[in-house]
Design goal:
With 444 residues, the protein is α/β, with parallel strands linked by helices. It is 53% helix and 13% strand. It has a 5-stranded parallel beta sheet, with helices on both faces. Strands 7-8-11-6-12 form a 5-stranded parallel beta sheet, sandwiched between helices. α14 runs parallel beside α16. Residues 143-358 form the Sigma-54 factor interaction domain. Keywords: ATP-binding, Nucleotide-binding, Phosphoprotein, Transcription, Transcription regulation.
Length: 444
């Protein structure tokens, strides 16, 4: 990648001139600004690839300028390298959180200036290549990986694409059941129809609150398509009866009318369905219908050899969807991830990738990964501790707060998804979060 456009913002004329001379010799197109007003004029006239920005200037400080750039969405296109003669760790952290690419201390090392600019340009190139590659590639929805279990899952999906019988997908929480259900739909003859996803909680709630019309609307939407039901073992008896009619007779009786519906059912379970049948909480007849073609998804700890490909998948996802910077995981970092137990499965790996892309830049090191896993395990350990000095209500509130905070972190602050997974009505969930002092977008 050829040297790009630079903007140097510093109130010291000697520094501006020296940096201009250095980078012009390196082949960069260089502009300079002596203050915040000139900087804004310069970046609006010609969008720079890289901006060297002084923190302390007489009119507007660099942090304030960085905030302005963030509001103008400039940071989606420009790598900002902050400079300061008396910077603090706090200033560097604040700048990084606001989207700065790097932070350099004065006096500036000329060699480091050049290397930092080259690294920023290389990062821009990688981001562009990955976006272009992702645009050319078809959507990846089949199970990812070269392990025997993932190859077997892909073969199963391709085999079941020819049929429309119900499917039961079992696996631990976060193992990818919803992802596999979507793959089954998108490879089937029903791919042009809708895929409707409902939790057992929502299915039950519609019936219990006499909202049959709302449920029927969703079932009609899935006609000639696919209905995915999560936590199938939690369906109440009325919901089980409706599901049985759908499978056996391709019809439902609701609102005092019989409606013909052709829907493929994909049931998701954490492996507790057989136990529900044994305890008499789930109809054996329906269970037998669902388990004609059961699919078991292995936990991530059982196929960690797929982690390199999964990392690349999640990285590309966040680079293209959220505009995050592309980062490569070093071989030692990947080895550490392959040795980890992954209690949260694919969802935990996805969260790790998202957080690491947000909080850092450059190659992902083994130390960075180990620090993240250590913090994650510490949070889980704290959540698991029970303080018996509290009364029962206080202990319950604390446990509930830890549980909901963890769910919100896993869902990226998505209250609707958190409501589904927790089995709490969304209105009640908002009330609980408010009472517990939990911010959905920033759960502690």
């Amino acid at each position: 990648m050829k040297p790009g456009k630079l903007l140097i913002v510093d109130d010291e004329k000697d520094i501006r001139n020296l940096m201009h001379e250095i980078f012009a010799e390196e082949g960069y197109q260089v502009d300079t600004a002596a203050n915040g007003v000139q900087a804004k004029q310069a970046w609006r006239q010609s969008l720079p690839d890289i901006m060297f920005l002084d923190v302390w200037m007489p009119d507007v400080d660099g942090i304030s300028l960085l905030k302005d750039m963030q509001q103008e969405s400039l940071l989606e296109h420009t790598k900002v390298i902050m400079m300061s003669g008396h910077g603090t760790i706090e200033t560097a952290i604040e700048a990084t959180k606001l989207g700065a690419y790097d932070f350099l201390e004065k006096p500036l090392s000329l060699a480091k200036l050049i290397v930092t600019a080259e690294r920023a340009m290389e990062n821009i190139r990688l981001n562009q290549e990955n976006r272009q590659l992702k645009q050319k590639l078809p959507e990846q929805f089949l199970p990812i990986g070269k392990s025997k279990s993932m190859v077997s899952l892909r073969e199963t999906v391709e085999r079941l694409a020819k049929f429309t019988m119900p499917v039961l997908i079992e696996g631990e929480s976060g193992s990818g059941k919803h992802h596999l259900a979507r793959a089954l739909h998108k490879t089937s003859s029903r791919k042009d129809g809708a895929i409707v996803e409902l939790s057992a909680y929502d299915f039950n709630r519609h019936l219990e609150q006499m909202q049959e019309s709302a449920l029927l609307q969703q079932l009609r939407q899935a006609d000639m398509g696919t209905l995915v039901i999560a936590n199938i073992e939690q369906l109440n008896l009325d919901a089980q009866n409706i599901l049985t009619d759908l499978i056996q007779n391709k019809m439902v009786q609701m609102d005092e009318q019989k409606i013909a519906l052709d829907i493929r059912i994909i049931a998701l379970s954490r492996g507790e369905l057989e136990l529900a049948v044994e305890h008499g909480n789930f109809r054996d007849e329906l269970y037998q219908r669902l388990k004609v073609m059961p699919i078991g998804i292995p936990a991530l700890r059982q196929h960690t050899e797929d982690i390199p490909e999964l990392l690349e998948f999640f990285i590309n996802h966040y680079v293209t969807r959220d505009g995050l910077e592309y980062r490569h995981f070093s071989v030692p970092a990947q080895n550490t991830l392959r040795q980890y137990a992954w209690p949260g499965n694919l969802k935990e790996l996805q969260n790790l990738v998202q957080r690491i892309l947000i909080l850092g830049n450059g190659e992902v090191t083994d130390e960075e990964v180990r620090n993240y896993l250590k913090e994650s395990q510490s949070e889980s350990s704290q959540a698991a501790n029970v303080d018996t000095t509290l009364n029962l209500k206080e202990a319950k509130d604390r446990l509930e707060a830890a549980y909901l905070s963890q769910l919100l972190r896993e869902t990226g602050g998505n209250v609707a998804e958190t409501a589904k997974r927790s089995g709490i009505d969304r209105t009640n969930l908002y009330r609980k979060l408010k009472n517990l002092g939990i911010d959905p977008k920033n759960p502690i």
